[in-house]
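ingest -> validate -> predict -> emit
validate: passed (alphabet ok, no gaps, 273 aa)
predict: started
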Amino acid sequence: MCYYNGQKVTRTEFIRLKSLEKAVRNYNFLDVGVHNGFMFQPAAIAIANADKTDFELVQAQWGYMPYGIKSHEDAKMFLRKYTTMNFKSENMLLNDRGETSMWADAVKKGRTCLVLSTGMVENRHIPKIGKKGEPLKATDAYPYMVTMKDREYWWLPGLYNQVLDKETGELVYTFAFATTKANALFRQIHNKDNKWRMPAVFNDDQAWEWMMTNPPTERLQEMARIQVPSKDMEYCTITKEYLQRQANPTEYPGLAAIDMSYMDAEELLYPAA
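emit:
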């Protein structure tokens, strides 16, 4: 769930992200319409400096790795066992068994980050129809790109870790972002197996608080489950070639429309406080 994300930013827009004149030729990873989390390609995250007076955009691998990963082989074994591209806000500190979670160390040590997004991709699953007109368990998947109204980019709350690759001597940033309960729009789009999750999305003030102010743990967990109202989002269906890293709008004949009647009456479980 929540394994595809866009990071396609123009050079002009990237300069505005930092509000300073800076060469961006070294940041060619900011030209991807859709990141496929399972391909473990470089992505952009924002991290604060040590005294929280400034931040920078760094190249990172989407897929959080804890300490103890010391080689490419260790990384492959870890990734075969765990999917760590995002984390449930409810599990930031404790996992479903009530034990200390994989993410708790990053929370404790203040390794919060912001994940740049210019579009979130999810598949809407529609049951196939049998020969007698009955709905089948098998489904057809229709990909949607979800964006934010009047915002070219936005921030997802994330946690990061640096892992030393002993084979190259390089410190590699790895990250995951928080997911929360789905709003009414995402409940219709991200509907497979009734998981009903969505990325948490921050406004600029929330992003600054998450990354730059060392909020107490309780506040971090509260922020990680913030739901954005459906009325603040836009969406369209895209071609199924999004796995090739580009998202092109298209229409699917016969696909039932998203129910828009909820827009003005939606009540969120976790509205922004």
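The mean pLDDT is 84.
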